[in-house]
Amino acid sequence: MAEHPTQSIPDFTGLTSFDAQARVAVFGASGGIGRAFIEHLVNDPSVAHVYGVSRQPPTDLAADSLSLHAYDPLDDDSLGALAATMKADGPVDLVISAIGLLHHEDQGIEPEKTWRHLQPENLAAMYTANAVVPIMIAKHMLPLLPRDRKAGYAALSARVGSISDNRIGGWYGYRAAKAALNQHIRCAAIELARRYDQAFCIGLHPGTVDTGLSKPFQKQVAEHKLFTPAFSAGAMLQVIDQISPDQSGGLFACDGEEIAP
Predict the structure, then answer these.
(1) How far is 138 from 182, CA to CA, in rounded Å?
(2) What is the C-alpha to C-alpha distance for residues 10 and 150, in angstroms, rounded to an integer?
(3) In terms of DSSP H, where are the helices of the chain?
(4) pLDDT at residue 64 above 90?
(5) Can you tell me the distance from the alpha carbon of 76 to that of 91, in angstroms, rounded to the nearest whole number?
(6) How far does Cα 142 stand from its chain's mean position?
(7) pTM for the complete prediction?
(8) What are phi and psi of 124, to 5 degrees?
């Protein structure tokens, strides 16, 4: 599979705009993109420590700067306990939520092509995974950001969550859940700015990435638009490194383009 040929996206060379000994938490460590984030970060000399967080942390990821943590994303007490553990070590400079749900074969969840396919339990599952979990992570992790330097929270969203960009319809639950996440991010960004003037809270569109999430839908994707997890994660980290506080609350593609709500 060829990687995206766009020359405007530079290779990720490190979190140069953050603290020289940054600490980063990645939620969704067992997923393809979450794992790719971690692999980049543990090889970044400017990153002192990486927290890899997942319901079931991967057993084959290891690095001196990496600690793996299990949690229940739907248990507020579990998130609170995890935040307390991290707080004891000091501020967390960057938090990344690499969590999302598009389909689940065992539960019969898949993107709806028509309103005839809508099921309340599937809509609830989409909203929970794509909107509720990321903002609950933000609830517990935003207070851990340092106040005296650049810091932030970035959650994987999607271009299809843009209402103004919706031209073809379908995918009701996924679109609506990502739109809700984008609104959550905007609300959190406004509140964050009142307390942390150097911090940001943004959504990121990773593109179509060769992971289990997109696997059933890759046939219609041009080869040069199907990204490897390493490429997408590196591009998004580059965006994060270039983001400034006045861009907080926005949704950005992995090439840095701001996507309209």
Answers:
(1) 13
(2) 21
(3) 32-41, 76-89, 120-127, 133-141, 172-193, 229-242
(4) yes
(5) 20
(6) 14
(7) 0.92
(8) -65, -40
What six digits make up the tokens of 66? 């990496």
**Over 50: is that where the pLDDT of 1 sits?**
no
Q: How far is CA 69 from the centre of its chain?
A: 17
Pick from 257, 254, 259: which is nearest to 36 by CA?
254
Which pLDDT belongs to residue 43?
A: 95
Question: 18: which 2 tokens?
Answer: 């953050």
* Structure tokens, 22: 């940054």
Residue 176, C-beta contacts closer than 8 angstroms, at least 6 positions apart: 123, 126, 127
The owner of tokens 């990687």 is: 3
- Tens of pLDDT, residues 139-198: 999 999 999 999 999 999 999 999 999 989 999 999 999 999 999 999 999 999 999 999
The phi and psi torsions of 152 (rounded to 5 degrees) equal: -175, 175
